[in-house]
Each structure stands twice: as C-alpha cells, then as structure tokens.
Amino acid sequence: MGNYLDRRRLILSGAAVAASPSMTAQDQEIRTAFIGVGVRGGSLLKQAIGQQAVRISAICDINGQARDEALSLCVRDNPKSFTEWRAVLDLKDVDAVFIGTPCDLHAEMAAACLEAGKYVYCEKPLAITAEGVGRVLQAARRSRAFLQIGQQLRYFPSMREAIRQIHEGIAGKTYIIKAHRHGGRSRPRGSDAPAARQAVRTAWYADVKRSGDLIVENAVHNIDACNWIANSRPVSAYGHGKKYFPQPVPPGKVMMDGFSVEYIYENDMHCDYSQISFHPRHLKTLPSGMWYTVFGEKGSVYLTHSSATFYDLFAESEPRNLLPENASERDTATADFFACIREKRQPFADVRVGAVAALTAIMGREAIYKGRSVSWKELGVEV
Ligand SMILES: NC(=O)c1ccc[n+]([C@@H]2O[C@H](COP(=O)([O-])OP(=O)(O)OC[C@H]3O[C@@H](n4cnc5c(N)ncnc54)[C@H](O)[C@@H]3O)[C@@H](O)[C@H]2O)c1
Questions:
Q1: C-alpha 102 to ligand 1 mean position (Å)
Q2: Which H or E run includes 376?
Q3: Starting at the edge strand that comes first in sequence, how are the strands of the sheet with 96-99 ordered?
Q4: Which of 71, 134, 185, 354 shows the greatest Cβ crowding within 10 Å of its Cβ?
Q5: Whole-angstrom Cα distance, residue 103 to residue 101?
Q6: Whether the Cβ atoms of residue 102 and residue 211 lie closer than 8 Å to each other
C-alpha cells in the first residue's frame, strides 16, 4: 500500500509538491473527500475508487452506518472519518470534494468548498432555491477551483452524439421539444438498504422543502437535457401538477407524482415536458421511460439515453439511426471530473450548466405552485 500511495503522491492545489520528471498528468494523485455517502454518494465513491491515482482522504456523513459502509470500501486509502462537514474544509490534504447530501444542503456546502479552494463534484440539483443558485455562482466566480454538477446525462456518449447532430442541423431549424419521463407506480428507492437508513432517505426525499419537489430533485436531469437540445435557456414557464395518488393534494405540500410544464426559450423554441409516475406498464402506444422528440423544419429526432433516430418530415427517406453501432451506454462523468482537474480545463457540466438547469426547474416548480406563468427575470439571478 505504501508504494501505491508514494507513487501517486502529488498535490494539485494548495501547497503544491513538485512532480517527478517521469510523472505524467495521469499519475498525479487527487486527494478526494466525500460528504454524504448514502445511495448516490456511495455509488460515486465506488466510481472514484476505480479511477487511476485517486486517493480517498476523508469520508463525512452524519449517519454512522452510511459512514462505516463507505469506510469499509476504501480501507486501501485509510481515509479520515467525520460527522461535521465543515471539518473537511480545513483539510489541507484534500483537493476535491464530492457532495452527495440531500438537495437542500448542496448550495451551502458547495459554496463553502469552492471558497476553501476545493474542486467540487456536487450532486444535482445545484440548489433548490434561486438564492441558493446565486450563492454558489458567486462562490465559483471567486474560487480558483471549479464545480462539476452531477448531471451525468451530459456525459452519455450517445446523448452527446445525437445532440451534436441536432445542433449541426440534421432536422433543420428546430422549433419544438416534447419530452417525457414516465414510469410505473414508484417503489421505495434504495430497497436493498437497511430499513433505518431507508427511512432517513425517504424522509428528506418526500419533504418538498428539502428535496425541492419532484421537478427540481428528479426532472432537473431531463429538463437540463432539453436546455442542452434547445441550445438556449427558457424565458418563462407555465405548468400544472400535484400528488394525484391516493387522493389529490394541491402542489407545494407533498412531493408531486405527476406534472407537466411548458417552457419558452430565448431562441423562441418551446418545450413540453411531462413527468408521471403512474404510467401503466402495458401502455406501449405512448412509451414510458425517458425520451425527447425534437421537431424541426426537415423532420424530427427521437432520442433516449441510448438511441437516436431521425425521421424525415415528408417520409422521403427511411428512419435513420444516428448513433454508431458500438455507442457506449456508460457515462464518463466521474472520470471526466478528475481529468478536468489534471488538465486544468472546465467541466462540460460546469457550474453554469448546473445553475441554468436548477433555475429552469425552480421556475417550472414556481409556475406550478403559483398557477401562473413565471419568468426567468423573476428569479433574480444573473448566470
Ligand atoms: N445523479 C443521479 O443520478 C442521482 C441519483 C440519486 C440521487 N441523486 C442525488 O444525490 C443526493 C443524495 O441522494 P441519495 O439518494 O444518495 O440520498 P441518501 O439519503 O441515500 O444519502 C444522503 C446522505 O447524506 C447524509 N447527510 C445528510 N445530512 C448530512 C450532513 N449535514 N453532513 C453529512 N452528511 C449528511 C445522509 O446521512 C445520507 O447518508 C441528492 O441530491 C439526490 O438528488 C443523484
């Protein structure tokens, strides 16, 4: 183990230690801390452990069981263990921090980590309020480090390829996006986790004041994909939604299980997004799952996270697959985070992407809650 660590030891921020002349950028050790190692944080931790020259220096979680499970995954690196996240800010031997805590904690934690000069991989959403988004943006502007948002759809090679072709005009000028995220009645998540931990997770997730509601916690992934496809940002939103089962409850009180929202973009495109968690499994005429259809002057592109097909408007050619046969269905978000640190480049899903995505979702949520159109300007945040 000693050799393993010595070979990779190189500090990338703070008091820099010189690299040996034979050392390449790929050998540069990145000392990494994790704040929040539940379902998602634990999964990111496994991904980070599998990366070359990444050392897990600290694990922080208020839940002893989550912390112990995480520590047992990285005995190789013998990380320090914390319950108080602010202690991580003072660690000189930490270059990068992953934040996998409940959504309402992201803004404060991400801003503080950036201000402490740490590179940040923050789970989505960046924040659940416009003020929170503004706070992280301000910290990022002042920081020497960067933030990558955990919107890993941006790192699916298939999505990148399909959206590149849309931007290059395969469908001509594009006008409208129809996007869905439909699923069957949801089961409790993390069902393999012990009951006590599952209860903790369910509590914050169901509390709209902590999660930001379904549109911000969950749909932010898909809404960001729509922003990416539109290559623009929305100027206004209008929508409806509530918790329908078992009895309808007006929005804003408990997490919605269905909503739809319409966005108008700066470039005049518009997007209809619908999310429903009671799509019958046998209803195939309207596909469930996550998909996007982009309508343009030459035809439409139908894309999922692993497929993309172009349909000619006048049916003068057969539907055409836009992806190579061997397109990978794996995202490269974690690997790219460490590569960006080493190569001193900004992440593709940087703080601005995270900010626009969170604000778009927040604007949709406020439109649903208020029952009226809400404008981007009302959010009061400069991105
Ligand atoms: N990108 C994705 O695909 C994806 C998937 C699932 C969840 N998420 C996001 O990841 C985040 C976590 O979700 P999850 O499902 O892992 O939830 P979880 O409840 O399983 O994990 C959250 C962890 O944070 C810990 N925690 C809470 N407060 C803390 C504090 N003050 N300091 C340190 N630790 C604290 C909890 O004890 C828990 O272990 C959420 O923001 C969620 O939206 C992203």
A1: 4
A2: helix 376-379
A3: 80-82, 54-60, 30-35, 96-99, 119-122, 147-149
A4: 354
A5: 6
A6: yes
**Burial of residue 342, with CB atoms counted within 10 A of its CB: 0-12 exposed, 13-18 middle, 19 or more buried:** middle
Question: Do residues 99 and 121 touch, judged by C-beta distance below 8 A?
Answer: yes
**Domains in the chain, ordered, with CATH?**
2-153 (3.40.50.720), 156-329+351-379 (3.30.360.10)
Nearest to 355 by CA among 53, 78, 148, 84: 148
The minimum-distance atom of ligand 1 relative to the CA of 41 is 16
Taking the centre of ligand 1 as the mean of its atom positions, its distance from the CA of residue 201, in whole angstroms, is 8
Q: How far is CA 292 from CA 98, 140, 188, 251, 287, in A?
A: 30, 31, 26, 25, 11
CA gap 359, 263 in Å, rounded: 12
List beta partners, residue 60.
35, 82
Q: For residue 354, give the nearest of 56, 152, 52, 179 by alpha carbon.
A: 152
Helical ranges in 74-115 per DSSP H: 86-89, 106-115
Q: Return per-residue pLDDT of the chain as tens, 383 residues.
A: 333 333 333 334 433 333 445 567 677 899 999 999 999 999 999 999 999 999 999 999 999 999 999 999 999 999 999 999 999 999 999 999 999 999 999 999 999 999 999 999 999 999 999 999 999 999 999 999 999 999 999 999 999 999 999 999 999 999 999 999 999 875 555 555 667 777 777 899 999 999 999 999 999 999 999 999 999 999 999 999 999 988 999 999 999 999 999 999 999 999 999 999 999 989 999 999 999 999 999 999 999 999 999 999 999 999 999 999 887 778 999 999 999 999 999 999 999 999 999 999 999 999 999 999 999 999 999 99
Q: Tell me the C-alpha distance between 107 and 115, whole Å.
A: 12
Which among 35, 34, 39, 33 is positioned nearest to 200, based on CA atoms?
39
Ligand 1: residues within 6 Å at CB?
35-41, 60-63, 66, 85, 100-103, 105, 123-124, 150, 152, 190, 200-201, 217
Measured between its terminal Cα atoms, the distance across the chain in Å is 45
Element (H, E) at 59: strand 54-60
